Amino acid sequence: MEYSTPLTGDTESGTGARRPRWSLALLPVAVGLQLGASLAPSLVESLYSERLYRVVATIFAAALGWVPFSVGELLLWLAIGAAVGWAVRGLRRLVRGRGRRGVLLLSALAQVWVAAGALYLVFIGLWGLNYRRPPYAALAELDARPATVAELSAVCARLVAAANHAREGLPEDGHGVARLPDGRSGALRRAPAGYDEAAGIASVVPGASAPAKPVLLSTAMAYLGVTGIFSPFTGEANVNMTLPEPDLPFAACHELAHAHGFAREDEANYVGYLACSRHRDGDFRYSGLLAASIYAMNALARVDRDGHARLDSSRSPGVKRDLAALVAWAERYRGAAERVSQAVNNAYLKSQGEKEGVRSYGRMVDLLIAEERERSARSR
Question: What's the predicted TM-score (pTM) here?
Answer without folding.
Answer: 0.86
